[in-house]
Amino acid sequence: MAKRNKKIKLYIDSRFSIQLRWKGERFKAGRRGLKSILLMLPDALFDFFYNIGLLVITALRWIGKALYNACYYIGNAYLRSIARIALALTNDFNRTRKFLRLRLRKLLEPELAKALAICLLVLLAGSASFASLKLTAKGLELKNKILKIANIGSRNLQAAKDALSAQDWAGAENRFLLAYQSFNESKRQMRSTGMLLNQLLNVVPQKQSADRLLEAVTLLSQSGSRLVELYKGFQQVHVTAEGLSTETPFPELLAEMDRQINAVNANLDRANKLLDGVDVNHLPEQYREQVLMAKGGVSALTDSFGSLKDVYDIVSEILLGQKNVLVLFENNNELRPGGGFIGVTGNFRIDNGRIDNFHIGSVYDLDGQLTEKIVPPNPILNVNDRWFLRDSNWFASFPESAKKTSVFYEKEGGETPDMVVALTQSVISDILKITGPITLSKYGATFDSENFVEKMQAISTIDRPNDSPKQALADFFPVLMQKIGELEPQGWAALIEALQQNLNGKQLVFYSRDNELQSRLSAMRWTGEVADTDKDYLQVITANLGGTKTDLYIQQEVSLKIAINEKGEIIDELTITRKNNLPKMENTGNLSFIRVLVPEGSQFISSSGFDYKTLDPLDAKDYRLDPQVTELEKGSVRDLSSGTMIGKEAGKTTFGNWLDVKGGESKTVTLTYKLPFKQKNTGSYSLLIQKQPGSLPQSFNLSIDFPSRAAVWNNFDTVDLREAGLATQLILDKDRFLGVILDKH
To answer: Which of 52, 200, 332, 556 has a Cα at 20 to 30 A from 219?
Structure first.
């Protein structure tokens, strides 16, 4: 019985009185006592955590026996705390409150605070460890679910790609949709992980990269579905000899396609930005190379589709509404500044995609209607003492030539054109590579990409002299349009690529009277205009004025040597070599007036190798002067020693002179001039080289000497580094921009 009395019993009776038995003694308290006990509980808890903290400190200091002593100490301390509570029950409330204040002050004691903090950390660490085990298990389960769903999406994407290759558009659309649904489900699973796990994972770099990758492929899957819808829209467009026909009204079809293109463009742009934020180092090693390739591919696709969007906007603007279009068929075998000799013209009216009143005819039929006598630019006097539409593409910048051609077209009885389109025979030859040969039974001739130029030229001038000189070309184009309309999807892709190359190479150029459309065309570099730049610039423009069609047999090579001296002065030495690959016989020579455009304000130093030639001004008594030509020639002066004409045009200084290369000959000319600006010791040097519309690709060599300086960067495709200089070679098949950053040695 005595042993039982040593136990502590603490209970509340039916009257809410508290009784405590300890060491045979009994303590009793009523409701007031209950309040005292409640007030004393913090003190008991305080002592408990205080001693637990001391236990941790003791355990850290003393291993083994110390741990045992600490536990013994805490046990006794705990009993002391209970005893304090029991004794406090007999005190009044004021004494209890005082007691509490004294006990709470212990919280401010450094050793106690340290013990309490360590105790809490231990408890929290234990709880966190248990929670982390649960979260890890949940995360592993989530990972397996997401990987399973993502793999299904990946397989659907691959299946969609295979379906596209097989031209199974319905299958591709279905697979893209399934892939989109799979990746969307993966995103939903990720979001349903629970708030705690999701918030914890969001600070992990691997989770962030995975989120971006998942969102990107979801957008790409959606884009794939939209691209198939877009293709369905293109399938409704049929090319015929009369133009374009559609199942849906043309404006409605274009509006729907525009919505699809905008959606795809936005998705690709967003996906590209997301992939930029993916760190492949956070991904499993076996996927890193694939993701890197995907990032590069999506980036290129985004740029390409952005360009496609620009093209679509331009094409839509051209096809919608009503427009009068003048087409110039230029013969680049007889090269002119605007692309080639204008031998044939075409005109038609666009009415919401439909081509009406399509007519092709000889330029001589139009020129025969001109009664007004207009003085031509001086070099044209070598072939004609009057200015006609056929020679109107004289200016260095194609928009200026197109404006002048439009004036002549109106004077010769044509309706004012809203647009002017110029294309060379090279465009037709490239299209024939895709459509295949075209046979015109009327002429007993089959045209292909290899013989088109020669055979059409022979038919027009030799085989059928009694027909309209250009009737063969007029009969050819409707058949060509019909062949284009019969192309398969691969053929259309090849056709688009061929047109893009011809636009880049300026075999196909546009001009619009509408300023907004012209600005868009210019932004795409489809207008053949002289670029505005405050750095070094070069364009070599050839005008065949010998009456022979020989330029396709002329091999031209251009070399530019740039010398930057210690003072920063820049001296350019230009060398042009022209080789005539025709045999030496009558009518195989090439007589051309060559203009060189350089930065405005450049100073002529010398020239050599040109053929000195002067043309007496025309007696203009019965002629009208053209104000634009008069303005250009008024500011020109001749260098008497070389015969070089020095003038200004299109914001550039021009040097012009003659070169006559007979069949089998090769000639080289040199032109030296000083640029109007200086090069600093440090900084960039750049050169814009523009290709003449209609000209064939040619070799271009560049060398730059810069004493006391070093090239620290350049954008050359290939470069030959030298002592205080560098050099490069390239093919000038489109406009080229070359840049170098220089620094002191």
So the answer is: 200
Q: Do 670 and 720 sit in the same domain of this protein?
A: yes
CATH of the domain at 434: 3.40.630
CA-based torsion, 511, 512, 515, 519: positive or negative:
negative
Question: Are 494 and 574 members of one domain?
Answer: no
Whole-angstrom distance, CA of residue 449 vs CA of residue 433: 5
Q: d(Cα 328, Cα 142) in Å, to the nearest integer?
A: 66
- Structural domain boundaries, residue 343: 322-523
Higher-confidence residue: 690 or 482? 690
User: Residue 126: its pLDDT value, please?
Assistant: 39
Return d(Cα 708, Cα 705) in angstroms, integer. Answer: 10
Of the residues 463, 490, 523, the one at which a domain ends: 523
Report how far residue 217's alpha carbon sits from residue 158's, in angstroms, rounded to the nearest whole number.
12
- pLDDT at site 168: 65
CATH of the domain at 672: 2.60.40
In this structure, the answer to whether residues 600 and 469 fall within a common structural domain is no
Asked whether the beta carbons of 529 and 399 are under 8 A apart, the reply is: yes
- Distance, CA of 71 to CA of 66 (rounded, Å): 9
Does residue 243 form part of some domain?
A: no
Closest alpha carbon to 282 in 211, 207, 189? 207
pLDDT at residue 76 above 60?
A: no
Are 504 and 541 contained in the same domain? no
Facing residues of 620 across strands? Answer: none
The string of pLDDT tens digits covering residues 692-734 is 999 999 999 999 999 888 888 999 989 888 888 999 999 999 9
Q: Say yes or no: 461 and 486 in one domain.
A: yes
How far, in Å, are 161, 164, 186, 332, 632 from residue 295 at the CA level?
Answer: 17, 21, 20, 42, 52
Residues 337 and 483 in one domain: yes
Torsion 172-177-179-180 (CA) sign:
positive
Per-residue pLDDT at 123 = 40
555 and 432, same structural domain? no
Nearest one of 388, 442, 419 to 510, comparing CA atoms = 419
Backbone φ and ψ for 332, nearest 5 degrees, come out as: -80, 5
* Ordered DSSP codes for 63-113: -THHHHHHHHHHHHHHHHHHHHHHHHTTS-HHHHHHHHHHHHHGGGSHHHH
Task: Give, to the nearest 10 degrees, the angle between helix 195-202 and helix 205-235.
Answer: 90
For tokens 């075998």, the residue is: 333
Q: Quick one: pLDDT band at residue 349, thresholds 50, 70, 90?
A: very high
Domain count of the chain? 3
Structure-block tokens of residue 355: 């081509």
User: How many Å apart are CA 419 and CA 415, to the nearest integer?
Assistant: 11
Answer yes or no: is 140 within a domain: no
- Is 259 part of any domain? no
SS3 content of the chain, % helix, strand, coil (to 5): 50, 25, 25
Picking from 66, 84, 108, the residue at the C-terminal end of a domain is 108
Q: How far apart are CA 404 and CA 511, in angstroms?
A: 12
Taking alpha carbons only, the member of 96, 88, 78 closest to residue 104 is 96
Of residues 311 and 468, more confidence is placed in 311
Concatenated DSSP letters for 6-47?
TS-EEEE-TTS-EEEEETTEEEEE-HHHHHHHHHHHHHHHHH
Name which of 681, 652, 671, 710 is nearest 569 in CA terms.
681
Q: To the nearest whole number, what is the mean pLDDT of the chain?
A: 78
pLDDT in tens, 101-150: 554 454 445 554 444 444 444 444 434 433 443 434 444 444 444 444 44
Grouping H, G, I as helix, E, B as strand and the rest as coil, residue 547 is coil
Helices 110-165, 205-235: axis angle to 10 degrees equals 20
Q: How far is CA 612 from the centre of its chain?
A: 48
Q: Same domain, yes or no, for 713 and 638?
A: yes
